[in-house]
Amino acid sequence: MRRTQSIHGQWSSRLVFVLAATGSAVGLGNIWKFPYIAGENGGGAFVLLYLGCIFAIGLPIMIAEIMLGRRGRQSPINTMSTLAREEGLTPAWSLLGWMGVVTGFLILSYYSVIAGWALAYVFHAVGGMFEGIGADEADGLFVDLISDPAQLMLWHTLFMLLTVVVVARGVRSGLERAVEVMVPGLVVILLALVGYAAVEGHFATGFQFLFSADFSRLNANAVLTAMGHAFFTLSLGMGAIMVYGSYLASRASIATTSFMVVIADTVVALLAGLAIFPIVFAAGLEPGQGPGLIFKTLPIAFGQMPGGTFFGTLFFLLLVFAAWTSSISLVEPAVAWLVENRGMQRAWASIVTGALAWVLGVGTVLSFNLWSEGVIFGRTVFDILDYATSNVLLPLGGLLITLFAGWLMSRASVSEELALGNTVLFRLWYFLVRFVAPVGIFIVFLNVLGIL
Ligand code: TRP
Q1: Using CA positions, which residue lies closest to atom 12 of ligand 1?
Q2: What architecture is domain 14-448?
Q3: Nearest to 94 by CA among 289, 269, 242
Q4: Reduced to 3 states, what is the DSSP secondary structure of residue 285?
Q5: pLDDT class for 217, splitting at 50, 70, 90?
Q6: Is 102 left (phi over 0), alpha (psi -120 to 50) or beta?
Q7: Within 10 A of 267 (CB to CB), how many other CB atoms are there?
Q8: What is the position in ligand 1's atom list of the atom closest to the CA of 28?
């Protein structure tokens, strides 16, 4: 007998699911990471590749991942073993769920440290520290923060506590409440910032940087980064979206909701780029300066604009909220499993997972100061975690999802869950999941290994 509801609860409406999934998708990936990796990889051509990966690989995998979650109605680990058994396959497919749990820990460990920077900046903004600030002072402010392990630990700890508190409260009173206000709020502030960049920044230069494609600047690694980021920004490949799907009502359309989430996520990333690069160029800064990009540029804009202290505070607050509605989805798969299989109370399960990720986070904290020379081959713990998760583990998880949903599950089960009938839309999705997405991921992997 198939379950019709998860034991952990269900979203109160389809809209809430869209907000929750958007809350998971829209996060540091869109506002912090996308601009700096686009900057490091030369802009336009990279952005185009990223968009290609979002729609040809990301969207079809999101539909597949939600579909699996809703059919299994449990934590990704148990969902995968249940579905595998139902299709007469080996229950070892639960390993896909395990891989996701591990990936979630690794991501959360550094995600929380970076979200901690945003928390620190809320306080900088409130204290009026951006007023009249120039490029050098903004740089100094950032360097002072990241070179102090004690401060970073404090903010990292605070952010992890925020995450644990929400997850401990459960699907309806925790996750749902958090996403309802934050997600729309962030979009409004971002639009205001784009407006500012358009008036005061070098908007045309910024725009051109983001959208005019020069393919000579791309190499195999840029292609991998673009694809990896498509997974990261859509929260795909580790079970976060799967577990959110397991709380979705049976009658809601998976295709429609996924489409809305993907569009929202993409729009936010592009808006972030349009807010940031005009300011970067107006201040004469380098677009390729790495993870500090938004922390060194946006304060300059806030420092000059009327009401900048207010808007700066609001912006970093919303960035914290965006990160917060994402981090909760990183722990949910592990928490759901601990509750299902270990009979733990949700609150305990949240504390245990949060504590583990918190300890791992120390490696990232030290990556920006004591261990900044790197631990292996000149790479810091942060570099390694970021590369291993975005560029290897998430695409690998995605590849396994396409194999399971596209090739191993019966077409009857798949089409029953998606409820699209035998429409063009269904056949297009099936084609993308069976051929385009897996082949695409495979080629990018081979390409990086130098085999292709
Ligand atoms: N998508 C989020 C961001 O862009 C991060 C995130 C949340 C995530 N849950 C995830 C990434 C699951 C990968 C997998 O900031």
Answers
A1: 235
A2: Orthogonal Bundle (1.10)
A3: 242
A4: coil
A5: confident
A6: alpha
A7: 14
A8: 15
